[in-house]
Fold:
Amino acid sequence: MSKLSNFVKTMAELGHRRTRKNPRIQPRAKTKRFNVRQPTPIDPCEDQMLQKWWSDYRLQYSATTSLLQFDLHSKEAAETATERRDDEGERKRRLLLNKAWNNDTHVQSISHLKTILSDLTEAKQKRFLSLREAEKEKLDSVELRISALVTAIPHMITRENIDQKLEELFNSGVVDYNFVVDSRGNITYGSERLHKSEQSEAHEQGTTSKEAAKPDITSVRV
Structure:
């Protein structure tokens, strides 16, 4: 049987009666529906005594809490003052220790700093001397170049002496540029001009070699 059929059967059996939403709560009996509970009568003596006890209790409670708060605050103030004194003494002690350590390190570092300063000064002096020597060498080389240019001025070709230089060039002797060099690199032959006799001999040798090299036309066989 389904849930719907069970519900319909139950409602049909109950009829017009209403069901309770919470069956664990027992309904009030019909005979007690209109019974009203009357307040308990107050005894004046008992009420006066209770009021006095309540006021005494509140007074003692407030006094106890105030005493505890005062004790706690006094202890905290004493501890704070002690810590402050300790912190002040510790701070002074640390300042003195730091000052003493600074003085000791300053005294110990003087020799080391002097050594470093002397090394740096020496290195800088060496570098300055090397730069000075390099500049001097550069100036000497420039002066040599200038002096060489000054000495070469009379031999330079200009617009005024170009004709003279050309005449000297055309009238100059023959120079042998076929150098012969020994094992040490010295020129043994070819550094001087050829004399006229040598020129004539060389010319005759050249002509004879050319004639010897010419073929004989009559010796050719047809």
